[in-house]
Sequence to fold (196 residues):
Amino acid sequence: MPSTTSGRFLRPAALIGAVLLAASGTACGSSDESSAAVSSATSTASASAGAAAEVLGIRDPWVKAADKGMTAAFGTLVNDGDADVTITKAATEVSPMELHEMTMKDGKMVMQPKQGGIVVKAHSRAMLEPGGDHLMLMDLAKPVRAGDEVSFTLTFADGRTQTFRAVAKPFTGAQESYAPGHGDTPMPEMSTSPPA
Fold:
């Protein structure tokens, strides 16, 4: 027996069309809402993952251009968090690396490994600069020429990691001498400003 609506008869084809139209309208509405919800959740998760991945802000990173031997990476580390952050290791494909500092020994400034890592206090900044703390590339596998971009990965005391890129710049400073047993390079000048 044909269906009725308000006392009228509908033909079977019309009834099927009405049901399909109503179903597709409902499906589209819920599909759009579901898509929007999924998209929103995905965006939120991506934003959270991105925020979680950045342990420190790294401002104006650069690396001293060099053809061979040793060189160093510099920049400003920004900790906007509520806890101190300690960098325990740095790595790059270009060279083995060490965390270094400059310190006075026997009346002269020498470079040596930074014991305990580089600490960036909560809500503060730490400078990586010629004449101070820096990321030392120990034995270049290939030249790092001005304009090259070098990728670095920092490892933190809690096991997290963060990757950043630094542009190579020509620089005649940062020729520090090494602590005994760490090399023997003279330190002719101590300009701490990178080239523009």
Remarks:
- The two ends are 87 Å apart (CA to CA).
- DSSP finds one helix and 13 strands in the chain.
- Residues 1-51, 177-193 have pLDDT under 50 and may be disordered.
